[in-house]
Amino acid sequence: MVIYLKLKLTPSTTLRDVKRGISQAEPQALPDRQSLRLEPKGKTLKDDDTLASLGLKTGSKLYVKDLGPQIGWVTVFLAEYAGPLFIYLWFYQRPWLFYGDTSQSPPVQHVVHLAAGCYTFHYAKRILETLFVHRFSHATMPIMNLFKNCSYYWMFTAYVAYHVNHPLFTSPSIVQVYAGLAAFVLSEVGNLSIHVALRNLRPPGTKVRRIPVATGNPYTALFNFVSCPNYTYEFLSWVSFTVMTQCLPAALFTFAGMYQMTIWALGKHRNYKKEFSNYPKQRKAILPFLI
Length: 291
Description:
Elements: H1 15-25, E1 34-37, E2 63-66, E3 70-72, H2 73-92, H3 96-99, H4 110-132, E4 140-142, H5 144-164, H6 174-201, H7 229-245, H8 248-275
Antiparallel strand pairs: 1-2, 3-4
């Protein structure tokens, strides 16, 4: 489809301005649905790019791709995190639908209570971070991501919760339980510390990008070794939960999450190196000295 616009363009016109003009000509083409590119299958350009910085002049072409219906990042995050919170706590009650009559079952073991507390803490923290800590570069994402993300988190939660809360679940040794619990808490605090440090890199209402570095918080020292220590701490949290519960479904969730986070971390690591010529060369993406 060819869109004819009557816009007053200058070398300093940004692509955000172009998107607004397209939206005025085609009301259904909201700015968040648009992906502007120099080639039909090229990379999506940044909203802050100017016509001059892209080398565009009279006779140049911009290609517009409709990204389809969008939904806010905050909405998606709240949905994918609230689901596990309620699902896990539901299984924690040992509903008859899954476990039948549990009146004659052994008492709930102490590690089961600790696991429920850890799961609740993790996802409650994520919800609060979404509301009060994170600053998003993009306002929206494709609406299908809502179903994809929720399916992943909700179904894995049900899988883990069913086994940990099962009346026949057997606790590992008390030493292993508390070692895993301590490591889980430390990893969660580390994850929060990194999120706060990343938030402070970007002034409110801007899309400024800077090289993340260690701060006075000792947890942020991991920035000296990896580009995405928030993912490192996230991985360690679930390794710790797996050690604490000695549950195979928890281990599967841990390594599925690690696989996805590694993909994200490698992508962010490459972008950092492209964007900043002075980016620290010794850093890896997610695991110090390895990946």
